[in-house]
Specification:
This protein has 344 residues and is α+β, with helices and mostly antiparallel strands. 43% of the residues lie in helices and 12% in strands. It folds into two domains: 7-246, no CATH class; 285-343, no CATH class. The protein is elongated and about 95 Å long. Residues 1-13 and 323-328 have low confidence and may be disordered.
Length: 344
């Protein structure tokens, strides 16, 4: 992932975190990268949970259980579902709806005019202070993969099975022998060792204890923890100093702010901007019922020639554009004459 000011967003492929994972094969943070390794603090937390529940854990089994538990949780967070920490209330950063409520302009560091972001390729994120501390306390009070929201725990369970292999065939001989001795050969009890380890690793990665890890290796968390928010545009994380958030609806007119059917992306002043028909061609006189060069029936728009007439303007617009049958128009005119007589 990349953070501005480099104008690399123009070359980015894809538009989502899933695209990033598919393109690199290394996850969002690279948690399974051999160079990064398993964090020592996470190891300590995993072991502390075994001690908390009185589950015996001896060398060399400690290393094996901690590694597979961590790998299963890290794989899910980093590669399998890179949105799980961002769309569920689990960490201190969450996906927001700002992308569909505001217009974003991407600032080009070379000095070129800003580019209005296409909301179809835009994701917005914001910091939620205190959320991960609250969730951490909740998860610590309800331990186990099955207590994780939605299908997170179920998926991590499947990752564990893949790491263990059929009949624990992926385990080395010595830790496998020790595990069978501790569990008296009970396969479910044996798997529970890895489930507890994976649950503890997930809680550590998602919660306040793993904040520094997220900050160091996840650009969205870095930006949100530093600046309060971030955007993902065309597959690139951009920090607030390289975009402008404007309080008007996406694809609304950049001049008047109207959010109407007639706004179109138009090349103006060296860049592409959305502009409505009135602001683009409003000086042209095209005849009755026209706004710019377009016949318009959207009388709710302040620029429509019949806007001041309220709901009656809809009928006037329909008549002006010949969209009523003769009978309908005659009846409408008769009703209008009756109203005028009654009024006066």
């Amino acid at each position: 992932m990349r953070i501005g000011p480099e104008a690399q967003y123009e070359q980015a492929e894809g538009s989502s975190l899933h695209d990033w994972c598919n393109d690199t094969g290394n996850g969002i943070m690279g948690l399974l990268d051999y160079g990064l390794g398993r964090p020592l603090e996470c190891d300590k937390f995993i072991i502390s949970q075994f001690e908390r529940f009185g589950v015996p854990l001896l060398d060399p089994l400690i290393e094996t259980v901690a590694q597979i538990g961590y790998d299963s949780a890290a794989y899910h967070v980093d590669c399998y579902d890179p949105y799980c920490l961002l769309t569920y209330p689990l960490s201190d950063v969450m996906f927001s709806n700002d992308w569909c409520q505001n217009t974003y302009e991407i600032i080009d560091p070379s000095g070129k005019p800003p580019v209005e972001a296409n909301p179809d390729l835009l994701e917005t994120y914001r910091l939620i202070p205190g959320q991960c501390e609250h969730v951490f306390q909740t998860l610590m009070g309800t331990p186990g993969l099955e207590a994780l929201p939605n299908t997170i725990g179920m998926c991590i369970d499947e990752h564990i099975d893949n790491y263990l292999g059929p009949d624990f065939g992926e385990l080395a001989e010595e830790p496998l022998f020790q595990l069978r001795q501790l569990c008296k050969g009970d396969a479910n009890r044996m798997e529970n060792y890895f489930r507890l380890s994976a649950w503890a690793a997930f809680v550590w990665i998602a919660g306040p204890l793993g904040r520094q890890l997220r900050y160091q290796y996840h650009d969205i968390f870095t930006s949100c923890l530093d600046h309060g928010e971030a955007i993902l545009y065309e597959g690139t994380v951009i920090t607030p100093q390289w975009y402008r958030k404007i309080a008007r609806a996406p694809r609304s007119c950049y001049q008047c702010g109207i959010d109407s059917w007639c706004t179109e992306l138009t090349h103006i002043a060296g860049t592409n901007r959305f502009i409505c028909e009135h602001c683009l061609n409003g000086e042209l006189e095209m005849g009755e019922g026209f706004c710019g060069t377009r016949a318009c029936k959207y009388v709710q728009c302040e620029h429509n020639p019949y806007h001041s007439m309220g709901t009656a303007g809809i009928h006037e617009a329909m008549k002006a554009h010949g969209l009523m049958s003769g009978g309908t128009q005659i009846r409408l005119e008769q009703e209008e004459r009756k109203l005028k007589l009654i009024a006066g």
